[in-house]
Amino acid sequence: MPINEEALMRDCRKLFLRGYEIPVRIGIHDFELQAPQRMRFDVELYVPYAYSSPQADRIDEIVDYDFVRTTIADLAGRGHINLQETLCDAIARALLVPAQVAAVRVRTSKPDVYPDCEAVGVEVFQLRAPD
After folding, report:
1. In DSSP terms, which residues pair with 37 in a beta bridge?
2. Quick one: residue 27, left, alpha or beta (phi over 0 = left, psi -120 to 50 = alpha)?
3. How far is CA 86 from CA 7, 42, 57, 61, in A?
4. Model-level pTM?
5. Beta-strand (E) ranges in 37-102?
6. What is the Cα–Cα distance from 102 to 106, expressed in whole angstroms?
7. Cα(92)–Cα(124) distance, rounded to whole angstroms?
8. Could you read off the pLDDT tens digit of each residue along the chain, which spans 131 residues?
9. What single string gives the DSSP state of each residue in 23-42?
10. Are strands 120-127 and 37-48 parallel, antiparallel or unpaired?
11. What's the rounded Cα separation, in Å, for the pair 84 and 117?
12. Which CATH class is domain 5-127?
């Protein structure tokens, strides 16, 4: 069944974190095994309006952006990772843990791998599994 982003947008607010860059030990090439490299993360969370429309203007009424940044930093900092796909999937699964999150899109990219292109990367979109 194809994912209908338009249907998600009727029922959800899209929260995003764009351009989050941190050094990560990742890759399979010899030069990537020597030192951390710069990675960029772009994340979209789809959160139903019931969980993203604060009534009292308090942070505990929404999904906090700090949670997204901390999750990425924690997973990326656990040691060397060979593949972007592995890290991207782990981030998506972790961001779906809060019950408020209905779906997530995670894009990772490594901008410094090849001198003749802007970046190499991977993107995943995951929906919360039905209960």
Report:
1. 24
2. left
3. 28, 16, 37, 31
4. 0.91
5. 37-48
6. 14
7. 7
8. 456 677 777 889 999 999 999 999 999 999 899 999 999 999 999 999 988 888 888 888 888 899 999 999 999 999 999 999 999 999 999 999 999 999 999 999 999 999 999 999 999 999 987 76
9. EE-B-SSHHHHHS-EEEEEE
10. unpaired
11. 17
12. alpha beta
**Token output for 84:** 């972007």
Amino acid at 34: Q
- pLDDT for res 1: 45
Per the CB < 8 A criterion, the answer to whether 22 and 39 are in contact is yes
Domain layout of the chain by residue ranges: 5-127
Q: Which two tokens stand for residue 126?
A: 């995951």
